[in-house]
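Please, structure for the following, as tokens.
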Amino acid sequence: MTDQHPAAVPVVPDQAPHAPVATAPVSDVAVSDRAPEVPVASAPVSAAAASDQAPDAAVVSESVSAAPDRSTLRLALVVGGLVLAVLLGFGLGRLNATGTTTGSPSSLAAEHTDPPGIGPHSHGTATSTDQGAAIEPGGLAVSSAGLTLAPLGTEFAAGRPGQLRFQVRDTQRRPVTRFAVVHDKPMHLIVVRRDLTGYQHLHPTMAADGTWSVPLTLAQPGVWRAYADFTVVADNGAQTAVTLGTDLVVPGGYQPRPLPAPATSTTVDGFTVGFQGTPQVGASVPLTFRVDSADGAAPLERYLGAYGHLVALREGDLGYLHVHPETELVNGQIKFWLATPGPGRYRLYLDFRVGTKVHTAEFTTTVP
């Protein structure tokens, strides 16, 4: 199971910023233009007076005729400054309007009604169009996307039936109660020991106060990992898929088992299950699984809305990858699309149903 919201933001009219922006440049231009006027105008006249003591009519006439040119120059400078200021103000107004349209954090926050850290998204099966986007593993943290997995008890006795109870809480520590039904269930709970043995796929039920519960028996001592895989529905209808993880403890002598060697075929409950495909880092690639009985291809029934259900866990940190198949069988086989976040050894758990019983086939695969 793998894992899009524009907000309407008011556009500020272009005219609004013109007057204040234009006023300041006009003042600056006028001051700069007036400063050089006296020396520029007086310099030719004082030079003529120093050389001739009594200027003749031609010189006076020249000085008088030059005066309109300087006045024209000053007028041109002032007009040019005004034009420049207006253009500058217009440009700034357009820039401000554009910035407001794209949305500032405060304006977007006012329109955003999702819980903190949650944005609109699409949740579904990875397909071949997902090439190039590696899937980040889930279940490594107890909190993500503004949500927290809060178990109400984490210790179990080896081999004794117990009950796991937990809540999903928001940033105000309030229990979340709105969940989408995905693959026929609102909550998928995966439990496995840290040596990747004892895999269980469970479906808890939720009480009115947001408390989930499910019967759980952990057969062997050790530390177990529980993954809550769910999709939250926000007040505005947006959905966000999240996988959170927490540890469960079974006191006693822990004797981890080595991970089985990589293989592409195994037997379980009288069925032979084989798969083809090589998982890669950073690209979605197809994995196909075929289930055979002694009489040939097994008559698969739909399970969780499809013909199979696949969970992949990474050895070491137990990073969780949850994928689902295409809705129909492909040449009698269950086809998945899987992307891995990095190299290493992975344990694959395939759930399939024949008749009324669900079986689980397990594989080890190495991603180079």
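The two ends are 23 Å apart (CA to CA). The chain is about 25% helix and 30% strand.
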